[in-house]
Amino acid sequence: MPRMDEAMLHRYAELAVFVGVDLDPGRRVLLRSPLEAAPLARRIVEVAYRAGAPYVHVAWTDEAVTRSRFLHAPEGSFGELPLGGPEAMDAMAARGDAVISIDASDPEGLADVDPQRVATARAARSRAFKPFTRRMMGNEAPWTIVAVPTPAWARQVFPDDDEATAVRRLWEAIRQATRLDRSDPVAAWRDHLAALGHLSRFLNDRRYDALRFRGPGTDLTVGLAEQHLWHGGASRTPDGRTFVPNLPTEEVFTAPHRERVHGTVRASLPLFQGGRRIDGFELRFEDGVVVDARADVGQEVLDRLLDTDAGARRLGEIALVSVDSPIHRTGTVFRNTLFDENAASHVALGEAYRFCSDGGVALDDDAAGARGLNDSLVHVDFMIGSPETDVDGLSASGAAEPLMRSGRFVLET
Prior knowledge:
By secondary structure, this protein is α+β, with helices and mostly antiparallel strands. The protein has helices at about 5-20, 40-50, 65-70, 85-95, 115-130, 130-135, 150-155, 165-175, 185-205, 300-305, 325-330, 335-340, 365-370, and strands spanning about 30-35, 55-60, 100-105, 145, 210-215, 220-225, 230, 235, 240-245, 250-255, 255-265, 270-275, 275-285, 290-295, 315-320, 345-350, 380-385, 390-395, 400-405, 410.
């Protein structure tokens, strides 16, 4: 990993441990990290042990090894998975271990790889890890994601700079986005989470039946799931532990109704999926289902994503983000969903967060579906908001109330 000021690296580790998963003494940790992020991973391990973790299990990944597989492994082998891997991670989550993930991926690291191989491997992994993913999306254990820049990622974000300058600039953008540039980042995050919580409560009080988005290439009405709940900032485990799944986070979000999405939406930022780019894409929905999908770049990748399963053509999340967010104000397209989704309002294809419906975590699949909660192997966010986007809240009678104008909230909260 490129060098970062040691004091700042330690503060980043503390942010992941004390804000991200709010680690309490006696809780084990599962840390998922690419090899390139080893300096930050080692700091997180140290901070976690000092905070009272009895054991930190580090699961290393290597993009070069993954790329080699997709380029050279024999046909028919892309459904193979490590023996016991999914079961072990599910057992850790069931036990309540805190899960910290570090993202340091190359947005287009698999651009020259056969997309069918990638799609097959991703689908096999998603099926095997579905129990683990369901626990994470149900908040059964605290989890968080942070990111560190790599030269490959930084060169794509700042293509006109030399490598060292690009990495330095990306580090600085991440510092701003994660509030590490504040004198007390932990206190700054507590204030920010309180503000997001206030906005969530405001939206829950409004009890909108649907939202309508209008912007360049977009006129989309999204019905909301029955007994839907808005969330933002911190989440909570069944034993009452708060955590922040994404660092950074600027969104408030809830669950759409899987059958009540109508109209057309055009993505406002590119999407990077399986190491490849999808750009300039537009989806048309009828009765909740994508019936037409067109992309200027990455049409084949988009088609394979939508064909993952029946639920991949429906929405599982809707999120509102003001263009006043610090990520948007950086003016940087990060080419990484962890950051870009916090620069603009967005939706997600695929699996819904069941906690976004009152008591939804306890529901079986049929009952969750009856409320409109979507089920899928995937959950893929893409951005639809911009300074040209307006959002109205719709009542059950169809009456419209301005909620966002030019990408900003206009109602007093």
